[in-house]
Protein 1
Amino acid sequence: MIRKYKLLFLFFILLLLITGFFTFYLNIINKDENSKEHPKADQSLSNNVISENITSGNSITDETLSISANTDDVFEASSNTVSKITYPYTDNQRFYYQEHFYIEPLNEATIKRIQGLSYKDDCTVPFKELRYLSLYYVTNDQKVKTGELICNQAIAEDLIEIFYELYQNNYPIEQISLIDKYQADDDLSCIANNTSCFNFRKIANSDTLSNHAFGLAVDINPLYNPYVSTSNGVMTASLSESLPYIDRAIDFPYKIEKDDLCYQLFLEHGFTWGGDWKNSKDYQHFEKKVRN
Ligand SMILES: [Zn+2]
């Protein structure tokens, strides 16, 4: 009789152990699945996103993670599950369109990064009219990286939607950094094939403010999509580095073409394309008229 109880007791202990083991095992599986929820995001972290994304004022360093509040927040926020939020959003808070894609007003850290560079001392656009965007993009060799843009609040929602679609469809973009990384020098940013938006500057060789000055124009993959003018029947690019790409019949990476996804998305959002201009062509340039 005692032996029978002993066996029953052992059987009970065994049952407890098996249940415990399975609970533990299931927990591990769940954790594993959570970490695989965003394979693109995970991939990005192993692809030098951190060093790509972090710039601070004049100096561009890899170890400035703590300086950029925005960058810190990107990685902090990436662990949260964020559902799509409906418009309109409150202007004074961060707005997540999708995970890794957000809009926020310029915070102090961002203002410090752009003051005296893209935000010149004589800038007439108030800070409160500008927005900071953090987003993901995919390069031609399928690397996912974190990008930053500053634009006018009037097109912030357009841009977050457009860049989300471009990312979802693996539309290749080589780099999206604030132009301040290149001391707000448009030529240097173009040569680096950097996609950017806000820069308080005049149109080249003129006294008129560019639409970039208001954060209402975006240049996409500018090295491969140059500003091309024709003089005496001879086409020329504004930068010699872009000369190989003035012939739009040739195939090369990062080329924007009429009716491609980039073109379609910008036009759907009410932008015009510099490649459609009659005389000179600015193949990198999309702008939206929201001012009179
Ligand atoms: Zn432009």
Protein 2
Amino acid sequence: MTDTSDGPADAAAPSRAGRPSRRSVIGWGGAGLVLGAGAAGGTAMTLAGGSEPAEEAGAAVPFHGEHQAGIATAVPDRLHFAAFDVTTRDRAALVQLLKDWTAAAARMTQGHAVGDGAFGGLPEAPPDDTGEALGLKPSRLTLTVGFGPSLFAAGRFGLERRRPGALVELPKFPGDNLDAARSGGDLCVQACADDPQVAVHAIRNLARIGFGRVAVRWSQLGFGKTSSTTPDAQTPRNLFGFKDGTSNVSGADRAMLERHVWVPPADGPAWMAEGSYLVARRIRMHIETWDRTSLREQEDVIGRDKGEGAPAGKAREHDAPFLKAMLPTAHVRLSHPDSNGGARMLRRGYSFTDGTDGLGRLDAGLFFLAYQRDVRDAFIPVQRNLARNDALNEYIQHVGSAVFAIPPGVLDEDDWWGRGLFSS
Ligand code: HEM
């Protein structure tokens, strides 16, 4: 894929192929004009000549870096997550797919259309880009790729010896009611953005590029982030109405990220250094039952109060919790690092509502996403504890599950997702 539209002049100029890029179309769309590659640096230059934080501008999040974006970066409000089965048996075709995906992701996250764009090309061929994101801002789109355990199976792509020890299949937890059709996957792509159309466009175009090499196994749309990586921002609320993400690993806390989220080189394998591991769980929340539960019981179940979000017996949201003031079955008490040998993870989940279930109940819940250095020391022990004892279990059920190794970031234009895994 050739980039036809980089540089500060491109907002006004047509691309090399004579077609405006998605970003140049954006440029004429209104006051929030994003000019050139400067947007990728974290601030968007506006026509007025000022600069505003990427947070507010719907700007571009840098694609290249030591770590993949979409983990420690600020959490935008919309998600489209897709798990893929690799349908080709040809290793070279899989490698080419990852290169093609990387090139497309580098463009889409910066607000460009895929390849030569959505219109103006050969009338006889389908356009490179599907077009529905034309005129939209980059919207802090991040695309994060992962590799599932099944990709490393013997007899597939010769990767069985490269499988990280930490990429274990999750055990069956008490109460799990997992739907195989909503679980697993050889590959995953997490698309987060301020604008749902931008996230959906990204997954759709990656699926389209992958035609004949991968097929979508399952996907999940999410809205209303339930955790944030920016502790100074207002804590979002989940569908039970409680603040969620109060006590989370902050995306700005380097020491915590290094200790609990990024894989250090010493953990091995070498290709996973600076990567992470992702657990995805589709958790159905029985909204109607919860809504008939008294406020006192709701607060006892969580271990925090509903209004302020303060831990039981404390006044303010960010007061340190006194775990013994909570019921032994309270969710916060059971999930707290002090109850789990210090285990921590970076939660980054979203609420979902997929209509109703045929019995008049909302098919709604939490699409739980958590990044960690090693699932064996984080999600697995914490979820074991929760699955056995959490009072919340009366109101929730885990119905989908997947785990992925998240490789490190793409360093520059010559690099691609998974290069370390497939090289040497
Ligand atoms: C639908 C399911 C769930 C709901 C509604 C829920 C809700 C909450 C709420 C309201 C809090 C308190 C605010 C906060 O600090 O974020 C919390 C904390 C937490 N939850 Fe969950 N949660 C759910 C599932 C899970 C799962 C599956 C895990 C991990 C296995 C988990 C791990 C945690 C952790 C680690 C904390 C922070 C505890 C602390 O350090 O104080 N949660 N959750």
